[in-house]
Structure formats: structure tokens, C-alpha cells
Amino acid sequence: MLSLPTRGDGPWHRAPAGPKAAFIAALILGVSLLPTRAWAGAAAMAVLVLAHAVPGVGLRALLALLRRTAPLLLFTLLSQALLLGWEPALINTARVTVAIGLASLLTLTTPLGELMTGVERGLRPLRRVGVDPERVALTLSLTMSTLPAMARAAQQVREAQRARGGGRSLRHFAVPFLVLALKHADELGEALAARGVR
Description:
With 198 residues, the chain is mainly alpha-helical. The chain has helices spanning 11-14, 17-32, 38-52, 59-84, 86-109, 112-123, 133-163, 170-194.
């Protein structure tokens, strides 16, 4: 998971899983819809800091998360800079950082079983329009487990580069990172197929 659940008695810990997940999803959506402007990137980061500054969580958890995901965020920044330029790259990376940070806040304060139960319960009324709550809950849990897996893959590639005395070349980072990402996707697909998920 992005973060292992911790014990606490703060507002985030006390909030029911379903409404908390809906509120955090709304925050992430709101940040994603902000215009590509410098003030929007600053506002997105302010939302992330304020969300973690709530009693019961603290900014230490946010700093630990940023350290763990730094290679992934750096890769996002550099690849976006090559395609779009530095200002949009910084703002888009801020959006990604906020999305990861808020999702981590959700997993940090909610046991996964409780979270998946809340998602399924909240989506049950949508069965009438063809939504499968169990499949959505499974997709959410897979997403929450894939993000830290990619962060670990990025860290492994960086450590291998340092061990071989390599520089910080984006090309030398991107190729092994993509290989590890595709390997993870294959393993995940095989595990789902073995369980009858199509």
C-alpha cells in the first residue's frame, strides 16, 4: 500500500471510510481540474500540506512519502519537461504529487478492508446502471498497490545505477524502469487471470 494504516484518534482516523474516500477523491479531482498556472500548482501543494497537517497525521508522514516517491516524481517531471516545457511540467508534477499524497493519507488512516467495504457499499445503488461495485473496489485496491510498486521499482533502478557508478541519465533510468513496470503488469495480469478476473 501507499502507507500502512496507523493508529490514531484524529479527524482523518475517525471519519467513516466511504465519505472520507469520496471527499479525498473530490479533492484530487478538484486539483486535477485547476488550470496549468503557477498559482494552481502552489494551491495544489498547499492543499496537500494542509491535509497532512491535521492532528493525528502530521507532516512527517508526508515527508517520508515524498522521499520514497522522489525518483518517480523526478521521472514525471523530466519526461513532462521534455514534452511540454518546464512550467507545465512543474505544475503537472505537483498534481501527481498531490494525488499520491492524498491517496496515501487515505490508506494511512483507513484499514484496506474497511476502505474496500465502504467503496462497495457506496457504489451499490449504481448497479442499476451497470456499475460493478466489486470490480471498482478491486481496481481501486490494485491502483493503490501499483503506485508504491512503481516507486519501489524506480528506487531499485536508481540504486543499481549508483552501484554501477552510472550518472543520472534519463535514458539509462527510463529503459530499466519501463522493463520493471511491464514485468509488474504481466505478473498482475497473470494473478488476476488465475483468479478468474477478465
